[in-house]
Structures
1.
Amino acid sequence: MLGFTLLLLAGAQSVFAKCKCTPTDPCWPSLSAWSALNTSVDGKLIHTQPIAEPCYPGADYSNQLCQYISDEWNNSSFIELNPAGYCYPRVETCPPVNITAGNHTQCTLGTAPVYTINATEAEDVAAGIKFAQDNNVRLVIKNTGHDIVGRSQGYGALMVWIKYIQSGVTFQETYAPSNGCQSNWTGSAFTVGGGYIWDDLYTTAASHDRIVVGGDDPTVGVIGGYLQGGGHSPSGHYFGLATDQVLELTVVLASGETVTANACQNTDLFTALRGGGGGTYGVVISATIKAHPAHQFIGHRLYVIPQTANLSTLLNISANIVSKYSILSDAGFSGYAEILPSSELSLSIPAGAIYMHSFGVMIPSSNASATIQHAKSVLNSEILADLLPYNGSDFLIESTWYNFPSFESYYDTIAGGSSAEPTGVSDLLLSSRMFDKPSLLNNADNLEGMLHTIFSKYDGGPLNATDIVIYLCLIGGGQVLHPTPYTSVNPAWRKTYLLTEIIVGWPEDASAQTVNHTINDLTFRKSNAMKALTPGMGSYVNEADGYDPSWKEDFFGPNYDWLLSVKRKYDPDDVFYCWRCVGSESWAEVTGGRGYGPLCQTS
Ligand SMILES: Cc1cc2nc3c(=O)[nH]c(=O)nc-3n(C[C@H](O)[C@H](O)[C@H](O)COP(=O)(O)OP(=O)(O)OC[C@H]3O[C@@H](n4cnc5c(N)ncnc54)[C@H](O)[C@@H]3O)c2cc1C
Ligand SMILES: *[C@@H]1O[C@H](CO)[C@@H](O)[C@H](O)[C@H]1NC(C)=O
Ligand SMILES: *[C@@H]1O[C@H](CO)[C@@H](O)[C@H](O)[C@H]1NC(C)=O
Ligand SMILES: *[C@@H]1O[C@H](CO)[C@@H](O)[C@H](O)[C@H]1NC(C)=O
Ligand SMILES: *[C@@H]1O[C@H](CO)[C@@H](O)[C@H](O)[C@H]1NC(C)=O
Ligand SMILES: *[C@@H]1O[C@H](CO)[C@@H](O)[C@H](O)[C@H]1NC(C)=O
Ligand SMILES: *[C@@H]1O[C@H](CO)[C@@H](O)[C@H](O)[C@H]1NC(C)=O
Ligand SMILES: *[C@@H]1O[C@H](CO)[C@@H](O)[C@H](O)[C@H]1NC(C)=O
Ligand SMILES: *[C@@H]1O[C@H](CO)[C@@H](O)[C@H](O)[C@H]1NC(C)=O
Ligand SMILES: *[C@@H]1O[C@H](CO)[C@@H](O)[C@H](O)[C@H]1NC(C)=O
Ligand SMILES: *[C@@H]1O[C@H](CO)[C@@H](O)[C@H](O)[C@H]1NC(C)=O
Ligand SMILES: *[C@@H]1O[C@H](CO)[C@@H](O)[C@H](O)[C@H]1NC(C)=O
Ligand SMILES: *[C@@H]1O[C@H](CO)[C@@H](O)[C@H](O)[C@H]1NC(C)=O
């Protein structure tokens, strides 16, 4: 209740002509209108409460619950079971602080929607869409709330939450398309009926001896933003992007109608939803995706740990390794690498950072030993031969090979994001860039220069690895390079070997000016250092910097205008909106000083 009261006080009527109604506006639906909506969805309407409300004075105060919430705050499985739960709230408005210990922060919903339909079937979704349309209320679609750009958040909104649409995961030994549609796919398939996460699907796929193309982190949702925005994966190199695997979708449209989208029906919608991003064309409630035969993998893990060496020397060595990535990829390697603060490993070393990678190679059933031998000799000659002279002196080099009988053992041992990502944090920003072969091969000096820019401070101070992580996702190459029909991912994906992600953070108590400088430094200086090496490439829409002024071009490439035409066709009245999604330029949040506010038309 507290959150709601504060929202009522906070509102300021917008200067724009046409805005969606918020709780402080006279046009906000009455309690009886909400109650009627609740009846029409069989009581599944939730008046959303901030998760940590029990930490604050009021009827819900509970020291014991607050303790539990504080302990679970970094647990993304806990966060995603809560309607107000977000991995990366755009503004943190209800942290689990200890009020009795003297903190007197206020607790409000912030960017979380006011009401949530805990949908379990298509009719609930349609009822939410209709209500939002009829009452001019902002609508938000949420699955897990993992989105890094904040696209499943929305101040003053009604949320359609698809988490509990769970009509099962079904396996087809041989895929048979609906309605007699022709398909080129003669292999197996899974139909995923709702808000399942990759952890669910990995388990099911393993039990059928199949590999599916899914998230590096098991807590990401299957059918939502991940799949619709592209989806990179530890197995994508061998089978293509996750969105390339989609055979068929069931979609609730803005009109309320539920349709099938595949290569025969609603093909424009099918294409837009295969790579054009979630949240804006319709609500996907089921997806059928390819399932591939099981394979063995080998793995390689490398740690480069500076002992006496400084950060500059680590970046020199890292740039040299990265310049060989397309060679590794062409030899079958794929996986994830990082340059991360040594403090995360509780190491205290002068350089302040280490390089590490966990790569794998899928082994074909015929020619296994030749493939293994080839892969090992490429990695030994291209990477290890250059490193071993340093070992034991300036650096500690740890190189380990693994044999895995299956994808699952590869994933569980070294490929999955088993180290839980921090969640519930709003004091970080991410920017990504795709790298093609010419930007890597024989380009070590320029890559080193880029890393120097990234690890230098905007105020001209010395190189410093504090509060910066670089993820080097070697998830392209191989099948990712091959365009498939009916996809709308940024075509730059078809040249991508490496996706580089920079994550910068700032202290919780940083001043507004420091935060602003840090954000601008990432959006412009650091991101431009990546762009300078990768002309014509793009950023990954699902792992991107929303402040990027070239977001249309960087996220969608030349497909933007076509995607917008599909958006206009299927959602002519803009009932769906998310920040930086296709069509979002027609709307803007009037944020005032809070960082969020009413959603209004821009023209
Ligand atoms: C810990 C972590 C690990 C990650 N690992 C990877 C990775 O390995 N590979 C990768 O490619 N990405 C990864 N990502 C990024 C991920 O792809 C995005 O966060 C993605 O948006 C998550 O989709 P979601 O549906 O789970 O999240 P949500 O936040 O619920 O939704 C994301 C977007 O999709 C829309 N949406 C959700 N469900 C639907 C639906 N059913 N129909 C229509 N629109 C919908 C929402 O409106 C929103 O715009 C990771 C993110 C996190 C936080
Ligand atoms: C919707 O109805 C259910 C069941 O009657 C009730 O428990 C719930 O509190 C109602 N939701 C709202 C927002 O009033
Ligand atoms: C809050 O602080 C008080 C007093 O220091 C303590 O007794 C209580 O256990 C704390 N509660 C939580 C949830 O940490
Ligand atoms: C949660 O993560 C943050 C940031 O990584 C960390 O500072 C904090 O200690 C973590 N909290 C818990 C309870 O693990
Ligand atoms: C995270 O939360 C989920 C869901 O509440 C719970 O099942 C799991 O045990 C938690 N994990 C940890 C490490 O606390
Ligand atoms: C809350 O109060 C405790 C004890 O006074 C303090 O350690 C902590 O940093 C405070 N947290 C915030 C967010 O102000
Ligand atoms: C949502 O609905 C599901 C299924 O009916 C239920 O298990 C779950 O507890 C509900 N969640 C909330 C937050 O009400
Ligand atoms: C099937 O293959 C043909 C020929 O390559 C191609 O034209 C067609 O688009 C493919 N269909 C699908 C659904 O991918
Ligand atoms: C880092 O070490 C290298 C090699 O020892 C040296 O040439 C360089 O000057 C050092 N850089 C800094 C900033 O100390
Ligand atoms: C076997 O693998 C090697 C090394 O990858 C490759 O050069 C060769 O062409 C492969 N042979 C066959 C028949 O696939
Ligand atoms: C790294 O240092 C070596 C010698 O110190 C130098 O020749 C080379 O150009 C530097 N950069 C890279 C990327 O190797
Ligand atoms: C890096 O920056 C942090 C915090 O800004 C500071 O504490 C640390 O001393 C710096 N390290 C170096 C090597 O300059
Ligand atoms: C942040 O920086 C931008 C660009 O320099 C500026 O336009 C904006 O007003 C600043 N915002 C705040 C809150 O300081």
Note: The chain has three domains: 31-163+573-601, 169-293, 296-558.
2.
Amino acid sequence: MKATLEEMYRDLGISRQVYEYGKEIEEQLKERFQKIEETVEYNQMKVIGAMQKARVSAECFQSSTGYGYNDLGRETLEEVYANVFHTEAALVRPQITCGTHALAVALAGNLRPGDEMISISGKPYDTLEEVIGIRPSNGSLAEYGITYGQVDLLPNGEFDFDGIRAAISEKTKLVEIQRSKGYQTRPTLSVEKIAQAISFVKSIRQDMIVMVDNCYGEFVECEEPSDYGADMVVGSLIKNPGGGLAPIGGYIAGTARCVENAAYRLSSPGLGKEVGATLGVNKDFFQGLFLAPTVVGGALKGAVFAANIYEKLGFHVVPDGKESRHDIIQAVEFGFPEGVIAFCEGIQSAAPVDSYVTPEPWAMPGYDSDVIMAAGAFIQGSSIELSADGPIKPPYAVYFQGGLTWQHARLGILKSLQSLVDKKLVTL
Ligand SMILES: *Cc1c(COP(=O)(O)O)cnc(C)c1O
């Protein structure tokens, strides 16, 4: 006889009590999920339209080697990205190794000695500190005579418009906005708020470049910062837009001039976009982008589900269970280290890959405390796949994101809860 769904969950280690608890929470989320589905549908139409407009064909899935001249797939894919983001051009390459690299290329390609860049959303993502030279680093922009300024967000998470006006000088060539909070506690910026900041900056001086670090934000809303005048939007393909299929890569979509400058930096002056073999990844890049709106929708449902589960148990969650979403990251503050560890063990044990290993806190380079990470991913380090990590220090918060399917995200969250229940860290 066919096993019931509850028995299927039981075989994967979910008790009846946890299963019922999850069902009860999910019941209350129908309207939220319906809204997410509407965004998925909108973005799916956008992506299909972008592919049709660029006349994607079977030839686009062929590979190139060596210099990679005249790679039809690569050129068409870049046209598709430009169509999706409504920009003049895009650079989408497997030679861009990660999000940090994409951002570094966008910055270094568009800044010259004597220029200044300012971040108007506060401290940028950790790894950018060394790119910019906020933390002294070999090869940073600072070493090339590019200066940096920063305007923090106001305590309520809004842009500090007076501060921005005061910080902009003749030297200011580029303004950076980070959409996602990353691993900070500030709220993530909505596209609407970013749009206001862009038009404010442009009202001061039209020729400043506005670059948005778009990591974790793609397809969460129906519009992107490039719809409101961002000169560049930049991100990683092992996050949202790769749809879980891209095995590597990053993108820069923006004005023809900015993208060209970035291309000269990525390959070489004189060569730019003309070189760069695709080594067989084209089909995965196209197909991943095609799936990305749905995958992002599943990850968002998971984040909302987790927020509501843990909020109801009395934990502080960011964003909270009701808030609108602008990226796919969910933070849960446990207040005690065992909570972070149990949560990560649960996520790991739900994975399709490496489910049998037990994650442990370790002294990761670049961090000032031990960090625990859970990831059982098809693509190493992919954070559009279900993954979680938490530094073992107060407030003992765990950050998690992704899930290639809503069903997997759901299982992961239930496993995390089961792990906390089994260790008697929470009672239902
Ligand atoms: C992930 C991320 C990056 C880049 O990180 P990589 O690990 O190098 O891909 C940059 N900014 C934000 C906000 C991010 O979330």
Note: Residues 282-312 form the longest helix (31 residues).
3.
Amino acid sequence: MNIEKSQKDFAAAQKIIPGGVNSPVRAFKGVGGTPRFFDHAKGAYVTDVDGNTYIDYVGSWGPMILGHAHDAVIAGITETAQKGVSFGAPCELEIDLAQMVIDMVPSIDVIRFVSSGSEATMSALRLARGFTGRDKILKFDGGYHGHADGLLVKAGSGAATFGEPDSAGVPADYAKLTLTAPFQDLDEVKRLFAENKGEIACIIVEPIPGNTGVMDLYSNGFLQSLRDICTAEGALLIFDEVMCGFRVSSGGAQKLFNITPDLTCLGKIIGGGLPVGAYGGREEIMRKISPDGPVYQAGTLSGNPLAMRAGLETLSRLQDDSLYADLEAKSKRLFEGLLAGCKAAGVPATGNRFGSMFTVFFTELEHVTCGADVSGHCDLAFFGKFFNEMLNEGIYLAPSQYEAAFVSAAHTDEDIDNTIAAAERVLAKLTA
Ligand SMILES: *Cc1c(COP(=O)(O)O)cnc(C)c1O
């Protein structure tokens, strides 16, 4: 595969941009090799600057659930752009998208738009603190909730890929307000609430963790227990659905699992590929936000018309349950096909999947339940080889064992079968 132009671009970018990238995991540090610079994308495919086309399972890290450059989304953005791309004043598209999200996500009655998932989570935390009058928050080891200071404590994929569990530059005094517990460890959650009686504002959790690879917190009742504890302790339960919202059902994980958080953070799919985040929830909590209430939060480009239109065109196509049924069928076929391929090649593997988000882990473990299972028991070197060989086969996976794969509505059964066949060839080569 000729990747000359990507190599040149990467060298040029590294001179003037840290690591050559504007978000760390794009740099391929966990897998080795040269990041591809993309020129264009359509449907299930991305094409790099050297003209190589790949079947894409990154989907811009989740947003492209309809596939790349969906005709209606592009037409909508183009039409709206003709009328001006930002006003810094209210526009009707904000009301339309707010109403659509409120209709789709069960726990959201009032919503505020921001420009990224990170902004959504940090704003939701400030709101939880402002509402409860408490300073401490509780998150889980390996839960990634964006890059705000207090959330970069045991924060999953990006940090884990580089073996840096925490970030430099986060004041220790600030990090002290962030309590952490391992996934599934209810006793530790209860102990922390007892030790910090009346001081914990909220639990923030990805209801389907996707940032140490996809994990399952639902099946054994863990999420429901968190709901019960928060209710009993007067703390808020925040679902960070930036990744799984609109991904696993039209109303996110909370609709799929029928568990009601107090606040929900959204991002990724909600902007259809443009920079949008949002947080929302019960009216009495959301009315604490400025200018209705004392919790300040603002954004020059928040709710800008281009981003709202991209969100509207995307979410309006996710109303149809048959779309999710189709995603489920294709994703199941791919996930099971990959695991069967591993088994046939004698490569120990397991995985977790919810709808069209999944991770296959190269490990002897029967179940992978947390980031420590990945760092301690997965064959990360083998993943790196598998990733690069798949890339040579024209399959673009996330460049880290700690990430999810995403299937889009644009992937065909043929794409899926070609992907499985490529994996079989790669596994045969790597075990020869
Ligand atoms: C991606 C992600 C974020 C951060 O969103 P950005 O738009 O990258 O700032 C927060 N939480 C979760 C669960 C995510 O997957």
Note: Residues 116-118, 121, 144-146, 206, 210-211, 240, 242-243, 267, 277 surround pyridoxal-5'-phosphate (CB under 6 Å).
4.
Amino acid sequence: MSLLGSIINGVLSIVGALTQQQTNGAPNTGVIRSYDFTVSRGQIAPDGYQKDVLLINNQFPGPLIEANWGDTIQVTVHNQISNPSEGTSMHWHGLLQKGTPWYDGIPSVGQCPIAPGSSFTYTFQASLYGTTWYHSHYSAQYAGGLFGPLIIHGPSNAQYDIDLGPVMINDWYHEEYFSILESVVDPGGNPRPASDNNLINGKMDFDCSTKAAGDNTPCTDNAGLSRFKFTTGKTHRLRFINGGSQGIQRISIDQHNMTIIANDFVPIPTPEAPPQHSGCAPTFPPPAVPQTNPTPWQPSTTTKPTRPRPPPAKPWNIPDPGTCANDDLSLSVPYYSITPPTPATTKELSISFYVNETGNFLWTLGGTSFRGNYNHPVLSQAQAGNLSFPAEWNVQNFGTNSSVRIVVNNLTPASHPMHLHGHNMEILSEGPGSWDGSSITNPSNPIRRDVQLVRANGHMVMQYDTDNPDSDSGCADMYELDELYE
Ligand SMILES: *[C@@H]1O[C@H](CO)[C@@H](O)[C@H](O)[C@H]1NC(C)=O
Ligand SMILES: *[C@@H]1O[C@H](CO)[C@@H](O)[C@H](O)[C@H]1NC(C)=O
Ligand SMILES: *[C@@H]1O[C@H](CO)[C@@H](O)[C@H](O)[C@H]1NC(C)=O
Ligand SMILES: *[C@@H]1O[C@H](CO)[C@@H](O)[C@H](O)[C@H]1NC(C)=O
């Protein structure tokens, strides 16, 4: 868990029988996909309510990054955040960064923040395929708008006619992110403030009459919704991304069944009867009015023309399988089977919290509240051969163990999305209370995830092989486990 402040259209056709080798190693296309990102402050009103935000190339959400499996993605980030200036960094969510841990984008773990006024180029391989996103990993900047979609085209395990592209969904706070952060860590503050809205591809309506009394922020009703073009009788691929800072999302499309074809970067087979899929929080009406691809946000200059309103939502009744829990693990198995070995070592890490001497609320993982040092990343110290880390860096040294099982017991009444960098976690167990020490769901081929929710007062058991070394330092697996609420 890191500190509060830090934290596809198949271009190739269906490949029925990829070998195990291919599932672990991407092809090397030699193609470089270059992007240039200028990060700066700006003001937008994606739901009609004007807000100070951080933008990439003046866009929100940030530009779509697209590549084919095996390409090299190269992104130069120019930090032009000023008044006040801040560091920044960019994390490429779910990419393994094999051989390139220093491009994972985590200040205090793999790099120093990109200083104000300077630039940094990330270069890494599109080693997995599917749908993901990138986001700032500095402070809570992504609650301020610093994120965007990332698609890697590759083999597809499902037939579909139309790729509707990314559907980014995120909670949206009208308060500027830094002041939220201050209130989150303030004595007597709210560690989990509620958001004001929920955006789909950076758009949503907001009822300006619900603004707090005395709030003079400019606000426009009926700012507009994202629209998608559905064709009757065709099968559509939707790439859902939760780009929110805290909100767990629960997705359904009125009166239509969805078939889940991939969780994170892990393709899953398409069963005859589609599993019901859920997270938690609101359901959405279908984006009903035909239009071509969703348009990126543009500053509003003139009064918007009146658009037809979508019909009222008739959401499915899909009960939450727990208290804000992912689906039952037994419902999903990966397309490519991997059987986890008996782990070489097992570690239990409990999630808890405490109030420190100055009255600040702090989350802990394994008894430690993480506090990194932006000037001294873990990776560079390890590369220098010094493995004596300050306790508050919360470094777990698994030595030469070939596989690691981690039992996360959540002793708090709040669910937490757990996310391991550098690996797809094999999720062995998830449920209420503590793990019984032996139950494993689908032991011969457990679901693999980039992010897994550990439910409130529940547990999650995950395992990974230590197959992602930093070749320069000879250190196995310098990767962080974080809680995505940052
Ligand atoms: C959705 O799937 C269920 C279970 O297979 C089926 O009974 C129902 O008819 C389907 N509904 C639609 C609208 O396809
Ligand atoms: C308590 O935590 C806050 C927030 O991380 C920090 O600013 C403060 O220095 C801590 N207090 C002590 C006494 O360590
Ligand atoms: C190793 O790093 C720690 C802090 O990260 C530092 O206190 C210590 O002096 C370093 N040891 C050596 C031998 O450089
Ligand atoms: C395996 O990991 C444990 C920590 O869980 C560590 O104490 C032990 O030294 C490691 N063993 C090897 C052989 O590196």
Note: The pocket of 2-acetamido-2-deoxy-beta-D-glucopyranose (ligand 2) is lined by residues 185, 356-358, 360, 362 (CB under 6 Å).
